[in-house]
Amino acid sequence: MPLPVDLPIVDHHCHLSPHGEGVRAAARFRSAGGTHLFLATQNYVPDVPLDLEAYRHQFEMTESLAHRIRADTGVVVYCVVAPYPVDLIRAAERIGLPAAIALHTAALELAGRWVRERRAVAIGEVGRPHFDVADPRVRSASEDLFDLALSVARDADCPAIVHCEELSIEEIARLGRRARAAGLPPVRLVKHYARARFPVPSPERISASYLAKRELVGQVLLDPGPWFLETDFLDDPKRPGAVLDLATVPRRARWVAETRPDQVERLRIPFEEAIRAVYGWSPERDERSGA
Ligand SMILES: [Zn+2]
């Protein structure tokens, strides 16, 4: 059943793998009513990238998957690329911290280049490991690289999608100030996998990409934007159900339409207005997708 409003249906953060369900998962998203995916890169092989070529190859796999999805399903796919923050720890064990820092720096710069060349729309995921890192040198290097990621996003004129632990209200403001200090408007820093409602908008507030759980969607639906909805789908056959299924965002949109028909217009925030406010452009319309 199509939505009673003319809207794209957008999952703002997912991963797909050529070794997992891949294009078939996107087809499932499409059948459920989904129209646009923000596809974040990931390591597609068990080993962490140890040279820049490996990162280039990884980004290219994300891009080719995006093209195949578009061609086979009509779903519009936007790529999000960056070296995964946790990679630094594993690379440091293998090639030493200085070489790992140099590699991570080069990979961030490569990601910025991809955005400038319009092969990607954002830098992500960047940030810091979501767990405690024992080695203080590695910890401080990941903080420095996070700041570098923010300036790469500033220079590429795009958002940065942040991977980090769940944030308190103070930490949300602290991250906003940190973005501003790097020259990136706080609104362009997006906390992905947000599982709790963000405070009311302020000049320091970063943006939220909420996990599309029913209860959370119900809580934030009337909140002012920008905010997004996502599944963080992992497409990992070894971890079924680790995150939400890729069909969740369209199902959730239908749930809103059915249970709160008077609020269905609010979906314009995650599916259109937030993209305009954070990315600076509108989601493109694909004739085949009907969105
Ligand atoms: Zn992710």
Provide a descriptive summary of the structure in words.
The protein has 9 helices and 8 strands. It is of the alpha/beta class. It has an 8-stranded parallel β-sheet with strand order 1-2-3-4-5-6-7-8. Strand 1, helix 1 (23-31) and strand 2 form a beta-alpha-beta unit. The longest helix has 22 residues, at 52-73. The model has no long low-confidence stretch (mean pLDDT 93).
Short synopsis of the structure:
This protein has 291 residues and is α/β, with parallel strands linked by helices.
Tell me the strand order in the biggest sheet.
Answer: 1-2-3-4-5-6-7-8
Ions, cofactors, ligands: which are bound? zinc ion
Q: And the CATH topology?
A: TIM Barrel
The CATH architecture comes to: Alpha-Beta Barrel
Strand content: 5-15%
Helical/strand content category: alpha/beta
The DSSP helix count reads: 9
Q: What is the ordering of alpha helices and beta strands?
A: EHEHEHHEHEHEEHEHH
Radius of gyration: 18 Å
Segments where pLDDT lies below 50 for 5+ residues? none
Shape: globular
Main pleated-sheet profile: 8 strands, parallel
Number of domains: 1
CATH C-level name? Alpha Beta
Whole-number mean pLDDT: 93
CATH superfamily: Metal-dependent hydrolases
Range of helix content: 40-55%
